[in-house]
Protein: Leucine-rich repeat-containing N-terminal plant-type domain-containing protein
Amino acid sequence: MSSVLLHLPIAASQSLHKCHEEEKSALLEIKRSLKEGPEYCYYKFFSPGDYKKLESWKPEEGQEGGNCCTWRGVQCDRHSGHVMRLNLGNACLYGSINSSSSLLRLVHLENLELTANKISFSPIPPEISNLSRLTVLDLSKNVLTGEIPSSLGNLTRLSYLDLSFNYLTGQIPSFLGNFYKLSQLYLDNNQFTGPIPSSFWNLTQLSRLYLSQNQLTGQIPSFFGTLTQLSELRLNDNRLTGQIPSLLGNLSQLSLLNLSHNQLTGQIPSSLGNLTRISTINLWHNQLTGEIPDSLITLRQLKSLYLCSNKLTGPIPSQLGSLIHLENLDLSWNGLHGPVPTSISHLSNLMYLDLCVNNLNGDLHLGMFSGLKRLKTLVLSFNDFSLLLEPNASESYPLLWALGLASCKLHEFPEFLRHQHDPLFLDLSYNNISGQIPVWFSSFVYMRSLNLSHNYLTGFPQHLVFLNWTQLGSLDLRSNQLQKPLPAVPLATIQFYFVSNNRLSGTISSMICNMSNVQVLDLAKNNFSGVIPQCLSNLSSPLMVFSLHNNNLHGGIPQLHKGTCSLRMIDFSNNRLGGPLPRSLENCVELEFLNVGNNMIQDIFPSWLGSLANLKVLILRSNRLHGPIMEPKSNLDFPNLQIVDLSCNTLVGFLPSNYFLYWKAMRFLNTSRPSYFGESWNVPLFSFVYYPGYYDYSMTIINKGMVMEYAKILEYLTFIDLSSNNFTGEIPNSIGSLKGLHLLNLSHNV
Ligand SMILES: *[C@@H]1O[C@H](CO)[C@@H](O)[C@H](O)[C@H]1NC(C)=O
Ligand SMILES: *[C@@H]1O[C@H](CO)[C@@H](O)[C@H](O)[C@H]1NC(C)=O
Ligand SMILES: *[C@@H]1O[C@H](CO)[C@@H](O)[C@H](O)[C@H]1NC(C)=O
Ligand SMILES: *[C@@H]1O[C@H](CO)[C@@H](O)[C@H](O)[C@H]1NC(C)=O
Ligand SMILES: *[C@@H]1O[C@H](CO)[C@@H](O)[C@H](O)[C@H]1NC(C)=O
Ligand SMILES: *[C@@H]1O[C@H](CO)[C@@H](O)[C@H](O)[C@H]1NC(C)=O
Ligand SMILES: *[C@@H]1O[C@H](CO)[C@@H](O)[C@H](O)[C@H]1NC(C)=O
Ligand SMILES: *[C@@H]1O[C@H](CO)[C@@H](O)[C@H](O)[C@H]1NC(C)=O
Ligand SMILES: *[C@@H]1O[C@H](CO)[C@@H](O)[C@H](O)[C@H]1NC(C)=O
Ligand SMILES: *[C@@H]1O[C@H](CO)[C@@H](O)[C@H](O)[C@H]1NC(C)=O
Ligand SMILES: *[C@@H]1O[C@H](CO)[C@@H](O)[C@H](O)[C@H]1NC(C)=O
Ligand SMILES: *[C@@H]1O[C@H](CO)[C@@H](O)[C@H](O)[C@H]1NC(C)=O
Structure:
């Protein structure tokens, strides 16, 4: 009863003004031009979307059906009966809206919301200016491409404009500065280039400005400091340069400032200490210098302060503990020095604290964190302080999810760990911990990532210690003194398994073939003997990196089956492997790096690897390769090869001059973005939090008699070594075309 009564006034006003025929037919045309269905929902995982919105849009069926003002998503003006608001957000719609769309005939619209569909506007039709009464326009999360048309400049009544999460290009049009009523402007997550328009100084009503995730350049205009209504300013993930304008300190309403992932320089202005309402400051990944201003300690509303990955120096302000609402504090990857202020122990709301990779020094009583009951993440790795562990406090420590104490000069496992049950992530790498991994480690059953690399650990009280960690995804035990056997892990969950540089011996257990999700398998630099398990040819995991170098393995290399080879990196060098190279390597189309040097491979030059379009590094040094290298069959062979080492074999005949012509990657030297060969990945920690991992490819080459170890390989390094073979004849001219070549060694041939 009550609901009928509630609806009466609206129904009455709408029956007074039935919808206008021309608008009704325009709406029906819109319905016809768009497809609707669950397959077109924007959000697939969270909320499935409302894909029956247009069902009520029917031409005549009685009075209700005929009155478009009662249709879902449609609202008419009470007096004129004109369609004034159209809200088809998250309605799983697909189709195109262009110059011929009847939408552009709904000229009385004030409110148009089409967010989160798959509607393409390619480009936004210039006739959008027909909708000159719009005050709210939300086309976010669709398929908008091209530039914003200049005719949009006619929509001067807009107070809310959201074009975020699209594919818009070009510059941000300066006419937006004429929309003086604009209070919310969202242009984030597009591909806009160029500067922030200076006309924006007009936008005095602006309270939210999101320009993040574009490719904007130039400086942050200091007039932003005069837009005193601003409460959220997101400019993160652009290419902005210059300093943070100190005028921003005037924004007394500002609650969120995100300038992260830009190229900002200079100091953090102390005026930010005047942002009395600010709750989040994010300046991470810039090039900010100088000290953390003391003025920040007055920001009593501050909940999150992210200053990581800058070049900040000086101490952490000693009064930091007065930021009593602080929940997240990340000062990692800077050059901060001095002690960790004891006032941090007052931050009773703190959940996340990351101070890693700084030069912090002095004594650090770990007990100072014991009162922080909400603390879940504590990362202190790679500093210079002396960690003091108070055994008396160990039971009162907060139960952490993530703990990083890498390079903290530890000589033993901290006692308080014994009372931790929840850790998902534990990094104790680069310490001086010796002896066995304690039995109580087996209670860490939720562990997802354990890093004990670079210690002096010898093994496990029982080798099953990790077996009931049924969520373990990443185990790093590199560079210890582990002795056999190979640490057993839950075979179904392990993704990243590192035990290289230990003293493991015996044969490699065929259990590795049952690691059904393993992506990185690093058993290098041990004393394994015997053969490589043949079951690898049946491997069904998405293995990317497989490293067995510097062991004592013999026998043949197993065939890898078509469809199962996802390897990008194979390093079997420095063993005693014999037989031919398995022809099935041809199936590994992702392969970038193949090093089988220093073995006893009996084969001819593997020209068939030429079909691997991603292969960049091929090292077959010191094997038993024989016969001539034939000229390539196709000019597409080895298109990306840049490091080739065939030295110390018994190859004969003329140098293959055409290969030198086809190795295109060596002809140009792109040094613009120096990075290294390797793999990177994310270890999932909790719901949406990932921990990044990476693996650098490494190699050893011999240049002018010098053994050169490359722990990392610059992505633009190019190198050819054909020395110490029995090649004859002239050095081909074509080698001169390899302009990008760094090193060439043809010595010791005939
Ligand atoms: C314009 O949109 C209509 C209906 O949505 C579509 O049928 C037509 O192909 C589109 N025209 C262009 C040029 O994209
Ligand atoms: C713009 O609106 C007028 C009605 O005011 C209409 O006649 C015209 O067709 C519309 N233009 C487009 C491109 O739909
Ligand atoms: C929109 O603005 C342009 C100039 O930018 C003008 O030529 C055009 O007449 C305007 N259109 C409407 C519908 O107001
Ligand atoms: C900004 O704040 C400074 C003081 O920091 C003040 O002198 C100036 O008048 C303010 N400017 C505006 C536009 O409010
Ligand atoms: C700030 O930007 C970073 C990306 O650089 C993003 O991860 C973070 O969620 C943003 N935070 C807020 C509150 O906008
Ligand atoms: C903060 O604002 C006051 C005036 O409101 C001004 O005197 C002071 O200089 C400002 N502080 C900073 C650090 O800019
Ligand atoms: C632990 O003992 C140290 C001195 O050895 C003392 O300073 C500290 O307050 C004690 N902590 C607790 C929680 O009892
Ligand atoms: C760690 O152990 C190594 C080798 O035993 C030693 O050289 C180094 O000084 C030790 N470091 C610390 C901080 O104890
Ligand atoms: C895990 O295994 C160890 C020994 O293998 C055992 O002591 C411990 O109770 C087990 N934990 C759980 C939760 O099953
Ligand atoms: C591979 O699997 C097949 C069938 O599952 C089996 O017959 C064969 O022996 C396996 N090969 C190796 C080398 O384990
Ligand atoms: C283990 O920690 C070291 C030092 O923090 C890091 O370099 C390495 O990548 C980590 N291993 C994994 C698998 O994340
Ligand atoms: C390579 O040359 C050396 C001497 O120049 C000779 O002794 C050797 O037999 C040759 N090997 C082959 C495979 O031709």
Notes: The two ends are 103 Å apart (CA to CA). DSSP finds four helices and 52 strands in the chain. The longest strand covers residues 678-686.
